[in-house]
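Onboarding guide, step 5: your first structure request.
Type a short instruction followed by the sequence, for example:

Predict the 3D structure of this protein.
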Amino acid sequence: MSGAWIITGGAGFIGSNFVRAALAQSDAPLVIVDKLTYAGNVQSLRDVEADPRFTFIEADIADREAMDAVFAAHAPTVVINFAAESHVDRSIDGPMEFVNTNVLGTLQLLEAARAHVGGLSDSARADFRFVQISTDEVFGSLGPTGAFQETTPFSPRSPYSASKAGADHLAGAYFETFGLPTLVTHCSNNYGPFQFPEKLIPLMLLNALEGKPLPIYGDGQNIRDWLYVEDHCHAILRILEAGEPGSTWNIGGRAERTNLEVIESLCAGIEQRRPAAQNAALRDAGISDYPALRSYVEDRLGHDRRYAIDDTKLRTELGWSPSVDFDTGLGRTIDWYLSNPAWCEAVQTGSYRRERLGTATS
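The system replies with structure tokens like these:
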């Protein structure tokens, strides 16, 4: 696809990884738009910002005037919307910000895209794509068997997932009502480099290294399907290349783990690389191994029990499958965080210092 790509939320976790994948696999100029909230940081783009195809704009997708200016200046053929408030715990403490960004912000971006497409030629309009990046959490909670399909009805159970469901419905409605060429993707839990340390894996990893408690919600048996972030990015590129407008796609890793299993694997991986016996923080606390840091805490409000993605459509129709298994991806993730302490410190310079969120009194 010729022309510029607008990548909103491109300084965030998945967005910044996607920028790297897009630079490697396409020739398109990339216009990264990010509000730079707590989870969006230019530090995550330092290694690619010198690329001549890279342009960064600090802006809020909910600012229609700013979005119109971006579209006018760069005449995109592709918009990929990663911009979102994404942490469930934060949505419990403050739902309004999630609605403002995830619903109203997506609406403004869709409106800006619709206005832009309205001025294009028929052929350019046919080539345009708007990709809404979403989550498996919009489907709700599964029992012990089964998996979410593209046709599974939405049943969000947190303010975060409800706001993402609203945005997905808007993207679909803009295709049906206005003919805007939209696609929607639903992914399972991502992990990998550049993930803000409020999410499970980086939170537990950094806490373990510092000899801090590893807080496990409830009984630790909540199950998630894990997807290495680079595999997710490659899936989006494939959907952008061959997905039909108006379609939705599930992207999964087929790597279901309980939260407790993830933490156990993480502790084992850290032990291999940074043995507890050599960790001064553990020694000073009188702790002999990383698993001893585990601490069971009150469960999250409305905590979904299990998610699982059926990505058969993507695998059979577009030929995508993940290339990184969970153990390999977890090892790469641990290595990256151990090698990038400066990034970890830089992104935590704000008010968040890995404390518990989502108690509704935080």
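Each response can be followed by summary notes, for example: Residues 95-118 form the longest helix (24 residues).
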